[in-house]
Amino acid sequence: MKTKNLKKVLLASVLSLGLIFFIGCKEKGDSSILKLSHNHATGYPVDIAYKKFAEIIEQKSEGKYKIQIYPSAQLGEQKASMELLKSDVIQFAHVSTAILESFDSLYSVFNLPYLHRDYQHYVDVMRSEGMQKYYESSLDKGFAVITFIEAGSRNIYTKSKPVNKMQDLLGQKIRVIDSPSSIEMMKLFKASPTAMNLADIYTSLQQGVIDGAENNWQSYVEVGHAEVAKYYSLTEHLNLPDLLAVGAPFWNSLTDEEKQMFRDASREVEIFFAELWKESENKSREKAIKEYNVTVINPDISDFRKAVIPMHEALVKRDSKSKELIDYIKNYGL
Fold it and tell me: Which InterPro entries match (predicted)?
């Protein structure tokens, strides 16, 4: 019996190593096969945008580079993908700034609530040329960022008690992303933050384990939370971008001309994705209201903004790089 079990363990190990080797291999010959991992389903706007990115790169490089897309977290969730990326097993990974802050603390700046004057300010500054030096400042940590992917504004939704003002959150258990910034933010909002995986939220709402959560319109509707949490408050507390990270080993192997080619392609994808996102967001909002009878609330956000000022002040004092980035973002366009 022990011998059989040992054989099974050895076989599983060999298969796992074989999979990693297969994923990491690059095709020899005229083309290099690059790997891109993301955690969204096939056909989701993010997936469509990355397929467009692959098309543009193949065209611009005249077939030298081809990108193979791995959707639905096939290669692991975002943290796991980042480790593969840093090791050059894959070359690109779709990742949120909430995850990236554990790889480079500078990215915690992007997780500050109410960092932007409004949504257009957020989009404009993230697309600005001045962001490039910040995106590429983490190469010594194994990665850089070549583009941002809009993820909409995050809002608070609840099951039983609507949120018209910050005080309405007092004592409510609200699910947040498992990141220090998100947990601190919800504490300052006077709620009780509860970190959990996205997959666990629906059941937790049903069973009363949590009272609410926070996310953008698409996630709120598409994963079914609108079925059980009928109050959607437009707090717009976070414009939390998703980013396309590139591994330092691959990036450093490129010529300056090739790097610019990837940057140019990413700019095209930003514009392409923006239209997809806007259409998707409108459909999700309409579905929530018409099919799920969701009540949309426009709360007074003045107290929310005041509550998180200490988070801004703490990051400004933490280090000069964070202060420089915060100043750049807040002053952009003034």
Answer: DctP_fam (IPR018389), TRAP_DctP (IPR004682), TRAP_DctP_sf (IPR038404)
Domains of the chain: 32-151+240-283 (3.40.190.170), 153-239+292-331 (3.40.190.170)
Helix (H) or strand (E) holding 21: helix 2-24
Q: What is the pLDDT of residues 133-163, one digit of tens each?
A: 999 999 999 999 999 999 899 999 999 999 9
Going by pLDDT thresholds of 50, 70 and 90, the confidence category of residue 198 is confident
Q: Which residue has 């609507």 as its token pair?
A: 162
How many Cα atoms occupy the beta-carbon half-sphere of 167 within 13 Å? Answer: 0
The amino acid occupying position 218 is Q
DSSP annotation of 29: S
Query: DSSP string of 245-282?
Result: EEEHHHHHTS-HHHHHHHHHHHHHHHHHHHHHHHHHHH
Local structure of residue 41 (DSSP, 8 states): P
Which amino acid, residue 194? Answer: T
